[in-house]
Structure formats: structure tokens, C-alpha cells
Design a protein that fits this description.
With about 160 residues, the chain is an alpha/beta fold. The protein has helices at about 15-20, 40-50, 60-70, 100-115, and strands at about 30-35, 50-55, 80, 95-100, 120-125, 135-140, 150-155. The chain has one domain (about 15-155): Rossmann fold (3-Layer(aba) Sandwich).
Length: about 160
């Protein structure tokens, strides 16, 4: 079965909290798997001065992201690939910044274990990696949402 995550954007006010929890430093490489409209990529590049790599299968979202990145002058920090993250090499990542379901995280866990270097951080909004223990967990309430939701941090 070829499952594709639905497009549900990460709440914009949560992204800086995710990246701060992952301790993103300037010039580290942040990967966003299922990067959607690029909001995570843009905030990581602009506010955290990271190099960022996004993977997104939806052409419209890739084009939208590329337009935004260019208009913000961030093209030197942002790369977006119109491809499935399931086939992408994750070896260069210092941080994976994600909003993926438990189902997809469970599918990706063996790839994370195989490809991510020791010290690589994974930060995910709303869903745990099944059977993994997070290094940290914080609770946040996105703007306009009624209840708090978790952000999980894992360190390889």
C-alpha cells in the first residue's frame, strides 16, 4: 500500500517551539519530511539560520514553497525536492522537524535507525514514534486550538 500523509500544516506558532526544543543551531541541516507549503523550512532558515531540505510530493505545494523562499531571499539556505521522503537519504540531517502521524513514524523508524547519525535530533508535533522513548516532551496550545498538544524530541 502506498500511503501518503494528508496535508495538514503545522501551526505556525508551534514551529519556533519545535525548532527551539530541537536546539537548532546556525548552519545545521534541518530536514522536513512532507514539507507542505514550506513554513517549517522558511522559519528554520530565516529565524534559526539553518540550512534546510524539504521533501514534498504535491507539485502545487512545492511550487508555492519555492516562490515564497525566493521572495524572502532564502534560496541559498533552502532546498526543496518534489519527491517522496521515504526514498530520500537522511544521512546529512542534523535535525528532522516533522508533523507526521504515528503510522508513518512507525514505518519510518527503521530508516531513522539505519540512516541517522548519533546525536541527530527528531522533533515531531502531536505524535510519538511508537515504542520509542522521547528525550523530552513539552505541551503547547497552538493559537486558536482549545487544548494542549505534545511536541516530542528524540535524540539518536
Amino acid at each position: 500500500m502506498n500511503y501518503t500523509e494528508p496535508y495538514i500544516p503545522t501551526p505556525e506558532d508551534i514551529i519556533p517551539k519545535m525548532l527551539a526544543l530541537a536546539s537548532v543551531r546556525p548552519n545545521e541541516t534541518v530536514f522536513d519530511l512532507g514539507s507542505g507549503d514550506g513554513r517549517m523550512l522558511i522559519i528554520a532558515a530565516r529565524d534559526f539560520r539553518a540550512r534546510v531540505v524539504g521533501f514534498e510530493v504535491r507539485r502545487r505545494l512545492v511550487n508555492e514553497c519555492r516562490r515564497k523562499v525566493k521572495s524572502l531571499g532564502l534560496s541559498h539556505r533552502v532546498t526543496i525536492s518534489r519527491s517522496s521522503f521515504k526514498k530520500a537519504s537522511l544521512r546529512r540531517a542534523d535535525v528532522l522537524a516533522l508533523y507526521l502521524s504515528g503510522y508513518t513514524l512507525n514505518q519510518m523508524a527503521p530508516k531513522f535507525l539505519k540512516e541517522l547519525r548519533p546525536g541527530t535530533r527528531i522533533v515531531n508535533f502531536d505524535y510519538e514514534i511508537p515504542s520509542w522513548t522521547p528525550a523530552r516532551e513539552i505541551s503547547v496550545t497552538p493559537a486558536g486550538w482549545k487544548k494542549p498538544h505534545p511536541i516530542y524530541l528524540y535524540v539518536m
